[in-house]
Amino acid sequence: MEETLIWKLEAKAKEIRRYIILMTAAAGSGHPGGSLSATDIVTALYFGVMRLDPKRPDDPDRDRFVLSKGHAAPLLYAALALRGFFPEQELITLRKLGSRLQGHPDMRKLPGVEMSTGSLGQGLSAANGMALAARLDGRDYRVYVLLGDGECQEGQVWEAAMAAAHYRLDNVTAFLDYNGLQIDGPVEEVMSLGAVADKWRAFGWNVIEIDGHNFREILGAVAAAKETKGKPTMVIARTVKGKGVSFMENQVDWHGTAPKADQASRALEELEG
Questions:
Q1: Residue 29 belongs to domain spanning
Q2: Distance in angstroms (rounded) separating the CA atoms of residues 75 and 13
Q3: How many whole angstroms separate alpha carbon 70 and alpha carbon 31?
Q4: H or E element in which residue 129 lies
Q5: Are residues 134 and 63 in contact, defined by beta-carbon separation less than 8 angstroms?
Q6: What span, in angstroms and rounded, lies between the C-alpha atoms of 75 and 26?
Q7: Mean of pLDDT over the chain
Q8: For a disulfide at 118, which of 5, 26, 70, 189, Cβ 3.0-4.6 Å?
Q9: Where is the Transketolase N-terminal domain (predicted)?
Q10: pLDDT band at 1, cuts 50/70/90?
Q11: pLDDT at 2
């Protein structure tokens, strides 16, 4: 059963990466690097973990996902479309005038988007609110949130970290897409996060460190988080910026640069191979 699930997730991740390239190339703008680095995490959540019904996007018992690093919108849109929330054909309208697929997710326009994000640092606070609402409403849904490593230079992240631990929000699982690069360069040079795992532990979180491209480790971390009581879980996922496309991998220039037609062709050829 596990092998079948892993195979399914690998196939979905390849589809999502393919769409990220197609979408950003067609738009001529967007953020492929950080979308590709977090693809395996989001694939595991949407196709192997979360309780969702695309026909009932407002189901009060659904699990929630907050894309705190909202610039990785191409990744979220591809996952939602492949999960059935809206037609796949619409993906090619990314960033086009009048499209529902804006440069950052808008919860008012697209089913499946739980929070309008893009102002970095705010997503964990929103996830905490959803988790507290579950407690107040007596519901058992879980809240997942994806943060960027550069995003963790924002002070609000740490206020939210403190609040989640204080309120013992064990229905919150956060993933840190730790690819080591942000728009201005290496995270360590722009503003080092230092001993980031120790920081989250000091704030009262259960911390798990994984390879963010290993589905078994991702699923194992989610399972461990579900078993953890009385504290939220932070999964620090070591990832590769631009994962899956050789000439994009570990290259900071691809943070917010869309591939041109010839580059997109090369990328798609690699992904198909």
A1: 2-272
A2: 10
A3: 10
A4: helix 123-137
A5: no
A6: 15
A7: 97
A8: 70
A9: 13-266
A10: low
A11: 84
Which of 194, 188, 134 is closest to 158 using CA atoms? 194
Q: Could you tell me the two tokens for 55?
A: 């026909």
Integer Cα distance of 243 and 250 in angstroms? 8
Number of domains, the chain: 1
Q: Report the 3 state secondary structure along the chain.
A: CHHHHHHHHHHHHHHHHHHHHHHHHHHCCCCHHHHHHCHHHHHHHHHHHCCCCCCCCCCCCCCEEEECCHHHHHHHHHHHHHHCCCCHHHHHHCCCCCCCCCCCCCCCCCCCCCCCCCCCCCHHHHHHHHHHHHHHHCCCCCEEEEEECHHHHCHHHHHHHHHHHHCCCCCEEEEEEECCEECCEEHHHHHCCCCHHHHHHHCCCEEEEEECCCHHHHHHHHHHHHHCCCCCEEEEEECCCCCCCCCCCCCHHHCCCCCCHHHHHHHHHHHHC
Q: What is the pTM of this model?
A: 0.97
Tokens matching residue 239: 């990832």
The one-character DSSP state at 150 is G
Structure tokens given for 102? 């804006």
pLDDT surpasses 70 at 107: yes
What's the CATH code of the domain at 131?
3.40.50.970
Two structure tokens written together for 268: 């798609």
d(CA 38, CA 239): 7
* Amino acid at residue number 87: P
